[in-house]
Design a protein that fits this description.
about 130 residues, five-stranded antiparallel β-sheet, alpha+beta, 5 strands
Length: about 130
């Protein structure tokens, strides 16, 4: 009986750890999806990764990429902290762009993404 209780407690501990790990990763997965949608010029994916208050800004960002070829290089994102109800996510890597054969790069580490959890969905809701 004692061994069964120990095994049950261990299983419950592992289950709870897995749930909380998935929850903290949701913000980083959302930011990576947002950046990937920008590069792919995928408006539907961009909006699905944005909160309602950020949608107009997200579409403005998307417009700025319409005339350039964009690729994502070496992107990796991590939660860097919180600010009130916002989870802060920092990324490394580059957005490489080309317009008329002229290369340009945008360093992803220059921005911090503000992500909120609304009804269980992680959504980008601003940048710093």
């Amino acid at each position: 009986m004692r061994n069964q209780i120990i095994v049950l407690m261990l299983a419950l501990s592992v289950l709870l750890s897995a749930c909380s790990a998935g929850n903290s990763n949701g913000a980083t997965v959302t930011v990576e999806g947002y950046i990937t949608a920008l590069a792919a010029k995928d408006q539907a994916a961009l909006i699905s990764n944005s909160c309602a208050d950020w949608e107009d800004d997200a579409l403005i960002e998307l417009d700025s990429f319409q005339l350039v070829e964009v690729t994502v290089d070496g992107m990796s994102c991590q939660q860097s902290g919180t600010d009130g109800d916002k989870t802060l996510v920092d990324c490394t890597g580059m957005l490489n762009m080309s317009y008329n054969g002229e290369p340009q790069s945008l360093d992803l580490s220059t921005r911090t993404y503000e992500v909120v959890n609304q009804n269980g969905d992680w959504l980008v809701c601003g940048v710093r």
